[in-house]
Amino acid sequence: MTMMRAVQVQELSDDLSGVRLVELPIPEPREAEVLVRIEAAALGFPDLLMTRGRYQAKPALPFIPGMECAGTIVKAPTGSGWREGDAVIAGGLTGSVAQYGCFAETGLMRLPSRLSFAQGASLRAAYLTAWVALVRRGGAQAGETLLVHGAAGGVGLAAVDLGIALGLDVIAAASTEAKREAIRALYGSARVIDGAPGFREEVLALTGGKGADLVFDPVGGDVFDESTRCIAFDGRLLVIGFAGGRIPQVGANIALIKGFSVVGVRAGEYGRRFPERGVENNSAILALAAEGRISPSVHATYALADWEQAFSAMELRTVVGRSVILPHAE
Length: 330
Known about the structure:
Number of helices: 11
Strand content: 25-35%
InterPro entries: ADH-like_C (IPR013149), ADH-like_N (IPR013154), ER (IPR020843), GroES-like_sf (IPR011032), NAD(P)-bd_dom_sf (IPR036291), Zn-ADH-like_protein (IPR051397)
Protein name: NADPH:quinone oxidoreductase family protein
Organism: Novosphingobium jiangmenense
CATH architecture of the largest domain: Alpha-Beta Complex
Order of helices and strands: EEEHEEEEHHEHEHEHEHEHEHHEHE
């Protein structure tokens, strides 16, 4: 077989009209690359934004979307330490929503045996973000209170899962009752609240008036503003992103008076700036997954032909965890 099916972004558009399911030649790996038969591709919001040209990275057209996948190695360089048939987690800026893909050998992670391909594809980006935020940047200590906004999203749900594994007292905030019920079913030890305006009072009530020691915020906007009013003294407000649209601002006098820190989190850049710590971060989440202490949640799986449904579910914000495309499923 020399051809494969793939989703390809041919033109940028707000309605996915520039995206097609196409047949392409199976790519040949270049030096220091491996060829992977992709069994699962996990979708994140950046993948949707890239189809519109609204993500910070703008791949040249045409491109195959998808930053995360898992599968089995078909070809690997001699001496790389990887062999044909190895189950791996792979990825890059693009290239995952296809039946085959070439990826840098140095970026591969061995798939823990406890995880399915769909779970493996959902592991790296979300859990690395959560790990860098909570451990590296937030200095989380067992027994502290963690407030997670956008807790039903892929990254937010990873923060809930990891927070519990680290021994934190987790408060998970989500926007709809359906999402809150799903979080309760997955993580019974988390205290789940409505993330709508007014969450400050509930957070203060749940913490005895102290406030949250750590706030994990991928939303920004009004959520960030209100979080400054329910964060504990010596707390850390972890800035993950701005899914709410507005980039907030905070007066230095508020941080001074309330004694909290605003901490930026860029997990990928952290690993690039500190390569040894980046390796340690990957090893840490792999070990937790291998021990069964964390387990990525797959919201739904889709055949490659149903790619549009998978992307639309993200746009509708109905996904709890990750939507995953199975490129070889019928």
